[in-house]
Structures are given as structure tokens and as C-alpha cells.
Amino acid sequence: MNHLLLKKQLQEFLIEDIGTGDLSADLFHDETEITASIIAKESGIFAGYEVLTLGYELIDPSIQTNLYIKDGDYIEPGMILAGIKGRRKSILTGERVLLNLLQRLSGIATVTAQAVSLANGRTRICDTRKTTPGLRMLEKYAVRCGGGYNHRFGLYDTVMFKDNHLAGFSSIQEALETAREKLGHTIKIEVETETEEQVIEAVSAGADIIMFDNCTPEEIIQRLKHVPQGIVTEASGGIELDAIDAYSRTGVQYISLGFLTHSNKALDISLNVKGAVKA
User: Fold this and answer.
1) Are residues 152 and 35 in the same domain?
2) Are residues 195 and 146 in the same domain?
3) Does one domain contain both 107 and 161?
4) CA 277 to CA 34: how far, in whole Å?
5) Residues 121-125: what's their mean pLDDT?
6) What is the CATH number of the domain that holds 242?
7) Torsions phi, psi of 232, nearest 5?
8) Which domain holds residue 179?
9) How does pLDDT run across 152-183, given as a tens digit for each residue?
10) Are 144 and 203 within one domain?
11) What residues act catalytically?
12) Looking at the structure, do residues 196 and 67 belong to the same domain, yes or no?
């Protein structure tokens, strides 16, 4: 994870929430130190270790944050995930923003782990670019915490010819030739295919990755016969949890799932204040 970017993002998130000051926490005129616990309220996979530690460090460097688990660990209701010690007002000021992030990232890691389990080692589960604007780095990190893999991070690191791109060329062959001519040899090219004829053309044109878009498992099995081993294959397009088993048995190497990041359920995690620290 890019720690400089994480720090910058956390600063922005905290500034958005705190604004010119925390009206509630600022009512505490003393500097009382308290202890608090981060507690799991449902089962899942935890993600967000550095979000919690760096977040509180930005708010108040004197806060001590001790995590008892690591990213990717399985958690259960009632489990104490972290202990926090510091000024009451500082801990309460950061509570909501940091919990929001922990809950979202842990929810992504949890559903990813479910998908990985259903694939049962037959294929790799990966994410998409259907992420929350501003949270892509964190959400893709959470996918890895759940045992998944990352697809491209943005438009800048892989060429992907989708149907709307291909409409601007006379053929898949022309699209790939144009990309090879203009881009360096380190750039991978993926072609989204919807028909068997497109698969055959993409193979002939020298695609690095072929995506089977909105295809049934039976269609993928048939179309894989045209794809040599050197080309990476991916299934995508509206695949849900209950279909992963069937798709993982086709022989496709990757299954990309948009729902991992665009419609997952946050994992319930809370902060509980224990009380003042005795001198």
C-alpha cells in the first residue's frame, strides 16, 4: 500500500468530518485519558490495520493503538480487535471516520474470502474498477486481505478493449496493431469478447488476456478450446456468489467480480470506551 497516499487520504477524510472542530468532543475541557476497545460484532475477515493506527496518529500522536490481530485474520462477535489509550476528545473525534473505513474494508475482505472459498482453488478471484471513487487503493487492498487478486488499478496500467472501444476500429486485429504500435512492450492488452468469433480473432491478433463477457459456463468451456496456454483468460459480467462454483469449473483462470467492491455489506465493528485511565 502507498503510505504517502494513505496518509493524504486519511487527512482528507478526517478534515471532511471534523471541519472547523468537533463540537461534541470539544465540550470536554480536561485532558482526561481513557481506554477504548475496537470490538467485532459479527464474523468475517478483518482489514484496515494501518487505517486505524495511522488515522489516530494523525489526530493525536500521543494516542497508543495496539492491534491484537492482523489484516486477513478471521474475527468473531465479541472479539476485541484493538486497544486504544489516549485523550478522550481525540479518540472520540476519530471514531466514526476510522470505523467507517474498517467496516467497509472488512466487509470487502469478508465477501472476497467467501468467493475464494467457493472457487476452491480452481480459479483466481479478482476485483474490477467498480470501486468507490477515492477509495480504490484501500478497497483493492481489502480484496487481497480476503485472498483475492487485483485486476488493473486504472486506465493507465493495462489496455482493455471493450465493445465501445472496438466499435472505433475496423477489427480486433486493427485495434491490437494500433496499440502495439503506440505503446511500449511492457503494456498488456486485454480484449473483451462476447462471441466465439471474437475469441478466435483476439487469439489470432495476439491478445495477452481474453475476457469472456456475459458468457455462460457452457459457452466458456467451448470457447476455451480456441485459446492457447500462453493467453490469460477471465470470466466477467454479472457473476454472483451462487454461480462461482460453476464458473470455476470451466477452466478459466480468473473470475472478476464487481460486487466485491460496489455492493458489499459493511462488517459490524464498534468502539467501546472503558473509562478514565488511573494515574
Assistant:
1) no
2) yes
3) no
4) 5
5) 98
6) 3.20.20.70
7) -75, 140
8) 120-262
9) 999 999 999 999 999 999 999 999 999 999 99
10) yes
11) 96, 130, 162, 192, 213
12) no
Q: pLDDT for 183-212, tens place per residue? A: 988 999 999 999 999 999 999 999 999 999
Residues across the chain:
279
Q: Are residues 10 and 85 in the same domain?
A: yes
**C-beta separation of 3 from 141 below 8 A:** no
**Count: domains in the chain:** 2
Q: Please name the residue that has the C-alpha cell 486504544.
A: 84
Residue with C-alpha cell 494501518? 50
